[in-house]
Amino acid sequence: MITGRKELFSVLFAILGAHILLNFAFDDKDIFWYMFSGSALVLISVAVLNGRVQDELPALKFLLYGVVSGIVLYACFFVGYHIIDLIQPSMTKDVTKLYKNYAPQNIWQYIALILFVIPGEEIFWRGFVFAKLRTQYSVWYCMIASSALYASVHIYSDMWVLVFAAFVAGLFWSFLYYWKKSMPLLIVSHLVFDILLFWVYPLQ
After folding, report:
1. CA 142, CA 132: separation in Å to the nearest integer?
2. What residue intervals traverse the membrane (predicted)?
3. CB proximity list for 151: less than 8 A, separation 6 or greater
4. What percent of the chain has pLDDT above 90?
5. 118 pLDDT band (50/70/90 cuts)?
6. Are 47 and 173 in contact (CB under 8 A)?
7. Spatial CA neighbour of 202 closest among 46, 81, 114, 106
């Protein structure tokens, strides 16, 4: 019981730190990518020092599952966006604003996204937060709770569309991690999703 409480407190303390870091990152869009990249490095360090990520798939399989799952998630967002645009076009204006304020705009930001941000988010939120909660609670509770916590740090963007998108993506990647137990798979999936979302076929 004492060990369980210590684990829970370590997760809560780490999440509080993530909130502080992301609050600073979203506070000024001119320095967003500097703070966002630095925050990812801090979160990776916290996760690595306090846990161990799983990697139970050979390279060919995690690459295959990663690419396919990233495309599937993007397709879901693509269809959802266009359905909303047909039903309530005003709701998609936040997506345009989101791209303008926070999407990577140059090569160093894409490099930071690939090397620091994507691995940092997956290692911290799925490899650390989800995994630690999983030692105490049921898998479905942990998927929902860890995804809600992941979404919660996006409130500082003042865009509920980003909060909702983070929750949905968090559920998807938490399920993948529970199912396949492979952190490299999640990183590839997240990478494919972001490349499609920001570079190949943006939703705007």
Report:
1. 9
2. 7-25, 31-50, 62-84, 107-125, 137-153, 159-178, 185-201
3. 163, 164, 166, 167, 170
4. 76
5. very high
6. no
7. 81
